[in-house]
């Protein structure tokens, strides 16, 4: 009889800790028989992954320790197996088994062995609290502190959130001239991921489809996949500043399409759409009577000279479900506070609103202390805080872009917002490196610089660089990337 265990990554080397934050909640499950042999892995519910994971684990030399843990000593990966009792055959559900995060899948395949001589620089983590030197404003700390001291916010809240917090989000979103939200247009969630999850769940049934960007954030596919909802892709055109290929988007729509997801500003591209382009997308959605799920978690995070528009500002006809959070702009991803803002002036979504209400009874609302503090945070965080974040990011983007564009065989793409920069790789110029995945792997091994292969975002032969690091680190990372590129660049071989 088998038992299930979680593999948690536990790097002994301090330099490595934190690298896996982006995937740390994505521990793969494996089946271990009574002789401690790996017999099965849920992987992503696919045989291919199952076999790969089994091979991977076997190759990692599992050793049993006194604490009944299993050290995958060669790679410093530990299998937590405490107190597992194999007498009851308790399996994980089909729902869990069908959940697959492509980031996890790919990272597992990669051999991550940094150069021991060099301190690791992780440009891979989309967590703006890590490594950046931007201090939180006092008002944020005081706001949560006060809510703790008040002792009034320890109980349950309504499942869609308190009226006060929803009012605060509605105020934050409204524009005096053309966009007014009311508190009952706002549903509070645990981060933007859960907001997106609710939107997909409320709109589509098993066998329906949603249309998502490529390159794009991988969670859309993960969330839809678990629910048996298909994803279809539209391309973002690099040559047009990563604007949406509208023809392709249109060609993907069929009678089972339930929504279009638009992510602006974009992860991973760092692009920001013009008003005109957003209007084109909205017009297309209107023609096909499709709601838009607008992932605007990087809303307002644009570099000087660029302008950000919420999609809801631009239409009174197309229902827009705007998903957002404190995670990025307020640099509070760990607080897990997000929301869906329902923009639906024509009231097409009355039944969907009821569906949202029902679905929130599964989540019972975000943390009540955070809900209480959000009123002060959304109303009174000084603009200077946001400005200093965007200045830092714009400076870092400039440093990385200026340096990398001098290098042969790689083409950085200048971002206009968010916190990422994409770099195209001309793989013909690197004959000893087969793909972006090996490029990333070898860069870690030789130079201890960790970027993400954009294959994760359905965009092979690019890497994504996170630009939230301190300036000195960014410069050091760029210098190491330069050494790496020059060592492997062989254009005519
Ligand atoms: C485009 C995009 N949407 C949503 C999220 C999820 O945000 P949250 O941490 O608030 O769940 C992320 C996080 O990196 C993201 O990049």
Automatic annotation (TrEMBL):
It catalyses: L-tyrosine + 2-oxoglutarate = 3-(4-hydroxyphenyl)pyruvate + L-glutamate. It comes from the Eukaryota. Keywords: Aminotransferase, Pyridoxal phosphate, Transferase, Tyrosine catabolism. The keyword Membrane does not apply. It is an enzyme of class 2 (transferase). Signal peptide: none annotated. GO terms for molecular function: L-tyrosine-2-oxoglutarate transaminase activity; pyridoxal phosphate binding. Residues 120-481 form the Aminotransferase class I/classII large domain. Belongs to the class-I pyridoxal-phosphate-dependent aminotransferase family. Homodimer. This is Tyrosine aminotransferase. It comes from Brachionus calyciflorus. The lineage of its organism: Eukaryota, Metazoa, Spiralia, Gnathifera, Rotifera.
């Amino acid at each position: 009889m088998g038992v299930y265990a979680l593999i948690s990554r536990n790097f002994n080397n301090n330099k490595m800790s934190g690298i896996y934050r982006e995937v740390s909640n994505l521990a793969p499950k494996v089946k271990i028989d009574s002789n401690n042999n790996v017999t099965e892995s849920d992987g992503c519910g696919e045989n291919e992954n199952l076999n790969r994971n089994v091979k991977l684990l076997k190759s990692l030399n599992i050793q049993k320790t006194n604490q009944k843990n299993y050290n995958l000593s060669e790679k410093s990966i530990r299998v937590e197996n405490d107190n597992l009792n194999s007498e009851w055959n308790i399996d994980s559900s089909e729902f869990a088994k069908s959940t697959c995060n492509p980031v996890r899948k790919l990272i597992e395949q990669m051999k991550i062995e940094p150069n021991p001589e060099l301190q690791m620089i992780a440009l891979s983590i989309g967590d703006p609290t890590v490594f950046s030197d931007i201090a939180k404003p006092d008002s944020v700390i005081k706001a949560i502190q006060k809510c703790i001291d008040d002792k009034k916010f320890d109980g349950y809240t309504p499942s869609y959130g308190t009226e006060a917090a929803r009012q605060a989000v509605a105020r934050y979103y409204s524009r005096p001239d053309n966009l007014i939200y009311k508190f009952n247009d706002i549903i509070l969630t645990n981060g933007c991921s859960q907001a997106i999850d609710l939107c997909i769940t409320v709109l589509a049934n098993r066998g329906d489809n949603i249309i998502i960007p490529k390159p794009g954030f991988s969670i859309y596919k993960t969330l839809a996949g678990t629910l048996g909802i298909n994803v279809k892709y539209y391309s973002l055109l690099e040559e047009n500043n990563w604007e949406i290929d509208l023809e392709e988007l249109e060609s993907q729509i069929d009678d089972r399409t339930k929504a279009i997801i638009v992510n602006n500003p974009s992860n991973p591209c760092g692009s920001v759409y013009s008003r005109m382009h957003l209007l084109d997308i909205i017009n297309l959605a209107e023609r096909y009577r499709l709601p838009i799920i607008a992932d605007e978690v990087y809303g307002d995070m644009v570099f000087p000279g660029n302008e950000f528009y919420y999609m809801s500002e631009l239409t009174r006809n197309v229902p827009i479900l705007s998903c957002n959070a404190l995670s990025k702009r307020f640099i509070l991803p760990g607080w897990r506070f997000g929301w869906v803002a329902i923009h639906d002036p024509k009231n097409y979504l009355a039944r969907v609103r009821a569906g949202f209400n029902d679905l929130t009874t599964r989540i019972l609302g975000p943390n009540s202390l955070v809900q209480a503090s959000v009123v002060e945070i959304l109303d009174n965080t000084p603009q200077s805080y946001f400005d200093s974040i965007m200045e830092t990011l714009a400076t870092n983007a400039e440093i990385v872009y200026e340096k990398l564009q001098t290098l042969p065989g790689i083409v950085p793409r200048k971002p206009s917002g968010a916190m990422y920069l994409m770099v195209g790789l001309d793989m013909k110029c690197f004959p000893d490196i087969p793909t972006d995945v090996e490029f990333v792997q070898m860069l870690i091994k030789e130079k201890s610089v960790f970027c993400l292969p954009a294959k994760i975002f359905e965009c092979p032969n690019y890497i994504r660089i996170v630009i939230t690091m301190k300036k000195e680190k960014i410069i050091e990372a760029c210098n190491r990337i330069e050494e790496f590129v020059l060592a492997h660049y062989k254009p005519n071989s």
